């Protein structure tokens, strides 16, 4: 680790985000602070706009549960965006993973299947996501196809395969009742939904990976300056493949969580997942030009769309306007990111 730091610092064009750790920490703290303030303002607004209806115990549980799956996807997206990449296919990977998992369940007991079938179907979802993500990573790293094109193609291809397998219809008997009763509707100590627990564990694990390990350091280095990282000894291609594979794996986990909670593959219900997840990560302070971001920021960013959606429903705003609002929030987040970058360049 020490040798890597010395090599990075000796480069002609040093990696700012890696070399200036103090500045990175301060910048990260600033991003997370202003994002948290936005979240707090939204909570206060909806509380005042719908007194007694918003921020109830039921609402808090629902917001956390609804945000759990997007948080798992957002963790993977954070790594991708830090490398200056993008993944538009997360929703489709989730769908494909869910469909292949569901098809196994349908042919091995359906809703009445046992824990053996649950385990195998869950592994199918995880492996499907992992392999699809690794393939996209290989195309980005080895074939040198831009991430936007690779994942846009992956978005359509994964969804298309899912529709071919199911003939465009959500299969019946796709989820074991055991999975739904435990992971889907069960609660730790009778209070905390298991979906929230799973999302929390994934968040903590990968936050530590990003902030405290060589893998995290290499991820930041590639996003800051891939050529300099390569000259410093970082296996850039392997790192990129691993990052995209990780994102796919987390999409597979998201598929298991979705099946457990909703009991269906919802083939047509994930068209805007990429928008929601990218919005959350960028709101959390990650830069689309790479080299900056944090899992903590993503956690805060995920809850902004979640609170927005719940609050708008409570005050009677139509679903269509919710999508418009989330899209506008993404544009605003990117604009603020550009302003911060320009100020740093002129500082």
TrEMBL record:
<protein>
    <submittedName>
        <fullName>ABC transporter permease</fullName>
    </submittedName>
</protein>
<feature type="transmembrane region" description="Helical">
    <location>
        <begin position="192"/>
        <end position="211"/>
    </location>
</feature>
<feature type="transmembrane region" description="Helical">
    <location>
        <begin position="320"/>
        <end position="336"/>
    </location>
</feature>
<feature type="transmembrane region" description="Helical">
    <location>
        <begin position="295"/>
        <end position="314"/>
    </location>
</feature>
<keyword id="KW-1133">Transmembrane helix</keyword>
<dbReference type="Pfam" id="PF02653">
    <property type="entry name" value="BPD_transp_2"/>
</dbReference>
<feature type="transmembrane region" description="Helical">
    <location>
        <begin position="147"/>
        <end position="166"/>
    </location>
</feature>
<dbReference type="InterPro" id="IPR001851">
    <property type="entry name" value="ABC_transp_permease"/>
</dbReference>
<feature type="transmembrane region" description="Helical">
    <location>
        <begin position="67"/>
        <end position="100"/>
    </location>
</feature>
<feature type="transmembrane region" description="Helical">
    <location>
        <begin position="240"/>
        <end position="261"/>
    </location>
</feature>
<dbReference type="GO" id="GO:0005886">
    <property type="term" value="C:plasma membrane"/>
</dbReference>
<feature type="transmembrane region" description="Helical">
    <location>
        <begin position="112"/>
        <end position="135"/>
    </location>
</feature>
<feature type="transmembrane region" description="Helical">
    <location>
        <begin position="267"/>
        <end position="288"/>
    </location>
</feature>
<keyword id="KW-0472">Membrane</keyword>
<feature type="transmembrane region" description="Helical">
    <location>
        <begin position="34"/>
        <end position="55"/>
    </location>
</feature>
<keyword id="KW-0812">Transmembrane</keyword>
<dbReference type="GO" id="GO:0022857">
    <property type="term" value="F:transmembrane transporter activity"/>
</dbReference>
<keyword id="KW-1003">Cell membrane</keyword>
């Amino acid at each position: 680790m020490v040798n890597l730091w010395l090599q990075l610092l000796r480069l002609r064009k040093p990696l700012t985000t890696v070399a200036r750790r103090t500045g990175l920490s301060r910048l990260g703290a600033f991003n997370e602070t202003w994002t948290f303030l936005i979240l707090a303002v939204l909570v206060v607004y909806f509380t005042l706009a719908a007194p007694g209806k918003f921020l109830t115990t039921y609402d808090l549980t629902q917001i956390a549960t609804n945000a759990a799956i997007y948080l798992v996807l957002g963790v993977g997206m954070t790594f991708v965006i830090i490398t200056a990449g993008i993944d538009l296919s997360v929703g489709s990977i989730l769908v494909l993973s869910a469909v292949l998992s569901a098809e196994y369940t349908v042919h091995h007991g359906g809703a009445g299947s046992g824990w053996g079938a649950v385990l195998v179907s869950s592994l199918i979802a995880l492996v499907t996501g992992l392999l699809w993500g690794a393939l996209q990573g290989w195309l980005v790293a080895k074939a040198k196809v831009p991430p936007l094109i690779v994942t846009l193609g992956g978005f359509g291809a994964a969804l298309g395969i899912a529709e071919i397998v199911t003939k465009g219809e959500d299969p019946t008997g796709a989820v074991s009742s055991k999975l739904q009763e435990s992971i889907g509707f069960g609660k730790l100590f009778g209070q905390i939904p298991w979906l929230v627990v799973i999302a929390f564990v994934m968040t903590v694990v990968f936050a530590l990976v990003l902030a405290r390990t060589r893998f995290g350091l290499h991820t930041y280095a590639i996003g800051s300056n891939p050529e300099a990282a390569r000259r410093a000894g970082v296996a850039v291609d392997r790192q990129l493949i691993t990052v995209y594979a990780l994102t796919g794996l987390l999409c597979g986990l998201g598929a298991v969580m979705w099946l457990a909670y909703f009991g269906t593959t919802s083939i047509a219900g994930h068209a805007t997942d990429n928008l929601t997840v990218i919005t959350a990560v960028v709101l959390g302070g990650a830069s689309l030009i790479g080299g900056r971001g944090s899992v903590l920021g993503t956690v805060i960013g995920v809850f902004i769309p979640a609170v927005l959606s719940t609050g708008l429903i409570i005050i009677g705003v139509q679903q269509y306007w919710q999508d418009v609002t989330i899209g506008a929030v993404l544009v605003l987040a990117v604009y603020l990111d550009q302003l911060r970058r320009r100020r740093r360049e002129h500082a």
